[in-house]
């Protein structure tokens, strides 16, 4: 059994329907299993269960190949796959470079009237001899998939929604485990994929470069106008409220990028009292007692859970926030005016499934609410007011005190973050990681490559 990864009971909890977890489920899900296991044994599978076998068939028709797989399929969308489509998707060594897995031929050099001259079906695959004298072999799992589906989509989102109850035993992995093997990286990325965040305990904190090395176990650190790996104190080195000691409401970062940062990390290296502002005031400060290093608790809110609540309580508000597109910007620093390629809504839905795909919310970085043909600015403000109220509910807020040696890494497309005001000087390091690179690392450490490739190549 894999360490720190949600077990079968949690997996059965209608992950696709994105139901919230109770305190019991959260605790059970994040319990650390101390026994080690190999990456191969711990890897999950995309494969569906086997069904009743029968004699496979492949017959030439005017439209293409009419196919009957050895495993009975349910919910079929078609029985025939077109000739040109099949020829274009030949994966033999002549057609696909086996080192790069890239197509090796010009698709449009294939005759438009390409057709089979001979077909042979076995229980493993279908072999086709084509009219251009090429021979292709197609595994039945590949053919069966496209008999029942139109396209490869994203992996099923195995996510567990949460609220304030997640603070009882938050998802956590150990630094030595992550640094020692890809199995540790698998644990870390699976936790982030599942819950949207994870702590890494026992991380050395005397040198910030160790935190950089930790993040690079996932992927390279993204460089923005703030730089790459950051190590800062509240000195307004950049014109952003993150570089102050002010309280910050729940928000996502880099709303103004076309592709917002995928992961974000914070590691509190130090929180100490501020030195006296001047010698003249030193005596007064000493008499009153030096200002202690206090406050600065971090706030996490599961944006997907908040969106679920919004949809249940006010479907119209959900519709408005997922359809009205807004301008976002970063303009506080001299010579920098960043805005995404187009307007984006607060709640971005998948074009394929209609499910929530990404939360983009930072009221401070929001531009002017536009006048729309369907919804007025007043209607958007009312919907956003409801959204804001849900985000600020005690049941939505997870408050945690960051501490040296325990970095926090979270999904910036899902989890909103903020903080309470603080006194003293906090030194924090961290960085951003691209979403695509994170998902790639998650796939390749949690699944065998033989299952990953069909998901991404089609």
TrEMBL record:
Top-level enzyme category: oxidoreductase
Catalytic activity entry: N(6),N(6),N(6)-trimethyl-L-lysine + 2-oxoglutarate + O2 = (3S)-3-hydroxy-N(6),N(6),N(6)-trimethyl-L-lysine + succinate + CO2
Signal peptide: none
GO CC term, one of those recorded: mitochondrion
GO biological process: carnitine biosynthetic process
GO molecular function, one term: trimethyllysine dioxygenase activity
Domain Gamma-butyrobetaine hydroxylase-like N-terminal stretches: 76-143
Any matching Pfam family: TauD
CDD domains per UniProt: CAS_like
Cofactor: L-ascorbate; Fe(2+)
EC number from the UniProt entry: 1.14.11.8
SUPFAM superfamilies on file: Clavaminate synthase-like
Keywords for the protein's UniProt record, in alphabetical order: Carnitine biosynthesis, Dioxygenase, Iron, Metal-binding, Oxidoreductase
Its job: Converts trimethyllysine (TML) into hydroxytrimethyllysine (HTML).
Protein name: Trimethyllysine dioxygenase
Source taxonomy: Eukaryota, Fungi, Dikarya, Ascomycota, Pezizomycotina
């Amino acid at each position: 059994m894999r360490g720190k990864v949600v077990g079968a009971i949690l997996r059965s909890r209608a992950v696709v329907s994105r139901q919230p977890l109770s305190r019991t489920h959260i605790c059970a899900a994040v319990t650390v299993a101390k026994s080690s296991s190999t990456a191969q044994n711990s890897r999950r599978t995309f494969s569906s269960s086997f069904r009743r076998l029968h004699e496979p068939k492949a017959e030439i028709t005017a439209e293409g190949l009419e196919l009957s797989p050895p495993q009975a399929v349910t919910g079929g969308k078609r029985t025939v796959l077109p000739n040109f489509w099949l020829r274009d998707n030949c994966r033999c060594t002549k057609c696909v470079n086996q080192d790069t897995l890239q197509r090796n031929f010009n698709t449009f050099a294939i005759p438009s009237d390409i057709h089979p001259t001979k077909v042979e079906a076995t229980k493993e695959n279908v072999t086709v001899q084509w009219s251009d004298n090429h021979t292709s072999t197609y595994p039945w799992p590949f053919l069966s998939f496209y008999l029942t589906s139109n396209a490869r989509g994203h992996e099923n989102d195995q996510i567990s929604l949460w609220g304030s109850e997640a603070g009882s035993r938050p998802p956590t992995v150990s630094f030595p485990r992550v640094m020692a093997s890809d199995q540790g990286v698998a644990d870390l990325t699976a936790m982030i994929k599942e819950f949207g965040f994870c702590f890494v305990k026992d991380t050395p904190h005397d040198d910030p470069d160790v935190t950089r090395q930790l993040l690079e176990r996932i992927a390279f650190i993204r460089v923005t106008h703030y730089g790459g790996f950051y190590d800062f104190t509240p000195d307004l080195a950049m014109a952003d409220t993150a570089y102050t000691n002010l309280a910050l409401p729940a928000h996502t970062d880099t709303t103004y990028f076309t592709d917002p940062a995928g992961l974000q990390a914070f590691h509190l290296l130090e929180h100490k009292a501020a030195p006296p502002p001047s010698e003249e005031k030193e005596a007064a400060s000493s008499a009153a007692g030096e200002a202690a290093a206090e406050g600065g608790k971090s706030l996490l809110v599961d944006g997907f859970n908040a969106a679920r609540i919004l949809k249940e309580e006010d479907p119209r508000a959900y519709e408005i926030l997922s359809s009205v597109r807004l301008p976002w910007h970063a303009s506080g620093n001299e010579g920098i005016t960043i805005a995404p390629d187009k307007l984006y809504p607060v709640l971005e839905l998948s074009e394929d499934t209609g499910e929530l795909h990404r939360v983009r919310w930072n009221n401070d970085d929001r531009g002017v609410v536009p006048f729309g043909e369907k919804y007025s600015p007043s209607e958007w403000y009312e919907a956003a007011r409801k959204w804001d109220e849900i985000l600020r509910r005690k049941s939505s807020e997870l408050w945690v005190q960051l501490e040296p040696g325990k970095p926090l890494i979270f999904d910036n497309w899902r989890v909103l973050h903020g903080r309470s005001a603080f006194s003293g000087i906090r030194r924090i390091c961290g960085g951003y990681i691209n979403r695509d690179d994170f998902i790639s690392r998650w796939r390749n450490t949690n699944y065998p490559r033989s299952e990953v490739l069909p998901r991404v190549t089609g």
